[in-house]
Amino acid sequence: MTVRIGIIANPVSARDIRRVISHAAGLTLGERANMLLRILQALAACKVDEVLLMPEMEGLRLHLERQLPAAAEESRYPLPRLRWLDMPVRTKTEDSVRAAEIMRREGVAALLVLGGDGTHRAVVKGCRDIPIAGISTGTNNAFPPMREVTVTAWAAGLYAAGRVPDEHALRPNKCLHIRTFGSDGLEKQNDVALIDAAVLNEAILGAKAISQTDTLRTVISTQASIEAVGLSAVAAALQPVGRHDAGGLLIELVPAYGTHEPAAKTFTIQAVLSPGKVEDIEIASFRRFKAGEEYRVSGQNCLIALDGEREIALREHEYALISLQENAFYTLDVPAILKYVCAQKLHEV
């Protein structure tokens, strides 16, 4: 049986306006190619037969293929066969969704995802029941962990090769569902967010990335780490929520512009919204947000941002419902996989 893994590497992650204005470094194509080489060498050690890759138009493939012969000579194990998907590339989020759908049909055991929160959101929309292993290469990386890619790839290869059973390798994750409806009550759009959904007092979809909070009205977060960067950092400053804790957090803010929920008393917190940027944020209220309940957005023109990026323009005659789902998709538990394999080896001694 062919041991097959998919890799979806966003070649333009960490290039948005937030990094430009905050003097944060980005990843060059050369470094992204080096990361892929380290991944391939780790997968080779697990005897992975084939790797499917998402095509791109930025030159990542050229960088990688230039270095493959030397990497193959240095590798102790034969490198996996590489197969670039035959699909149109539009350099949009939909590329990652489409690639995940194709890889799922091709029978990959797992997906390695190189990108930020937005890239991982796109992959989750397409992969369904295929577990993913996140590799952080974006701007706000609240979802993918910061870890050497060799370690993540090694764990993914061990799982794909059947060395670790699902009950030891997989962890369920939460997500938010965002559904929009017209004045006739018919559903217009159904989308997801992995970390947070935010309502902004804005009417026009301009730059996707949120770099300021002066129009930010509501944030619903599935998880909130005190070490996070982005909108979930606002939630963490109020009440940290673990990735695998039940439910999330709903926050009502006091924006400088536009309407907001009435509040008897407000208070101000600080949070890191993007690299190099600590913001003062006025809070009206916050509470836990449970799985199954629905938050309604209606009555005015506004935008809804998903995982830190403006995605949905809602008009006054339309409304949206935001809900939280537990056990929505699976990720590889890298530490648990490696602990299991090490324990099995000790038993064999």
Description:
InterPro entries: AcoX-like (IPR039065), AcoX_kinase (IPR011391), ATP-NAD_kinase_N (IPR017438), NAD/diacylglycerol_kinase_sf (IPR016064), NADK (IPR002504). One of its GO terms (biological process) is NADP+ biosynthetic process. This protein is α+β, with helices and mostly antiparallel strands and about 350 residues long. It has two domains: about 5-165, Probable inorganic polyphosphate/atp-NAD kinase, domain 1 (Rossmann fold, 3-Layer(aba) Sandwich), CATH 3.40.50; about 175-330, Sandwich (Tumour Suppressor Smad4). It is about 30% helix and about 30% strand. It contains nine helices and 16 strands. The strands form three sheets. Strands 11-12-10-9-8-14-15 form a seven-stranded antiparallel beta sheet. The protein has a five-stranded parallel beta sheet with strand order 3-2-1-4-5, sandwiched between helices. The longest helix is centred in the first third of the chain and has 17 residues, at about 30-45. The protein is elongated. The two termini are about 30 Å apart. Residues about 15-20 have low confidence and may be disordered.
Keywords for this entry:
Rossmann fold, seven-stranded antiparallel β-sheet, five-stranded parallel β-sheet, 349 residues, alpha+beta, Acetoin catabolism protein X, Tumour Suppressor Smad4, elongated, 2 domains, 16 strands
What is the compact description of this entry?
This protein has helices spanning 17-22, 29-45, 60-74, 93-105, 117-127, 149-160, 166-169, 231-238, 334-348; strands at residues 4-9, 50-53, 81-84, 111-115, 132-136, 170-181, 187-193, 196-200, 216-221, 248-253, 267-274, 277-289, 294-298, 302-306, 309-314, 319-332.
